[in-house]
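Appendix C: a fully annotated inverse folding record. The material below is reproduced so that readers can follow the format used throughout the book. The structure is listed first as tokens, followed by the designed sequence.
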């Protein structure tokens, strides 16, 4: 979640609210589609609308989504939800212990969601696993990186994020998850730094 122009600087409380599989699914759908009503979200996520009300309320209350308008229906107007921002920055939230803990919880949910999507895609006969048009892939790379190489890697990550947030409405919906961390060395225990906050 790198910082972009007009990005939303998340608080630890907002990060914690995102640590829910259903709320992440709602956020992902709104990121891909732009706007949706509760009924549309329920259809897409294959859940009853009543199961979404609490999650939508929490996302609105914590400033992650907003009511962008209303859509007339045969029965009554329905609220239309949209993201507050497509760029989310956790840079301030992770300065506190609670923010870092919440980030770990969010990362766990994101990885679980990505694994489910990957498994479902691979199981399909139409999955494209090879060639320039492949849309299913996994890579696990272990290597050494000096400061210059790390800077280059981060530029690539930022470039991918910029491409994703400026994508067109056409084409195939894609999910790309990137995780980067220092490799834990056998017998090495990371030093826990004291941080101010909370």
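Designed amino acids, in order:
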């Amino acid at each position: 979640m790198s910082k972009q122009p007009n990005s939303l600087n998340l608080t630890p409380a907002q990060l914690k609210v995102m640590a829910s599989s259903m709320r992440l699914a709602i956020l992902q759908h709104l990121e891909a589609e732009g706007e949706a009503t509760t009924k549309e979200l329920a259809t897409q996520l294959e859940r009853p609308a009543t199961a979404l009300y609490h999650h939508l309320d929490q996302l609105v209350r914590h400033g992650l989504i907003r009511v962008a308008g209303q859509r007339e229906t045969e029965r009554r107007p329905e609220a239309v939800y949209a993201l507050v921002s497509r760029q989310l920055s956790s840079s301030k939230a992770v300065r506190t212990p609670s923010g870092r803990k919440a980030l770990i919880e969010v990362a766990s949910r994101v990885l679980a969601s990505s694994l489910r999507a990957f498994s479902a895609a691979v199981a399909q006969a139409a999955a494209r696993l090879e060639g320039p048009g492949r849309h299913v892939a996994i890579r696990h790379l272990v290597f050494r990186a000096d400061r210059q190489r790390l800077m280059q890697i981060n530029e690539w990550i930022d470039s991918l994020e910029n491409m994703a947030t400026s994508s067109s409405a056409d084409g195939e919906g894609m999910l790309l998850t990137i995780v980067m961390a220092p490799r834990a060395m056998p017998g090495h225990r990371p030093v826990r730094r004291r941080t101010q906050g909370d």
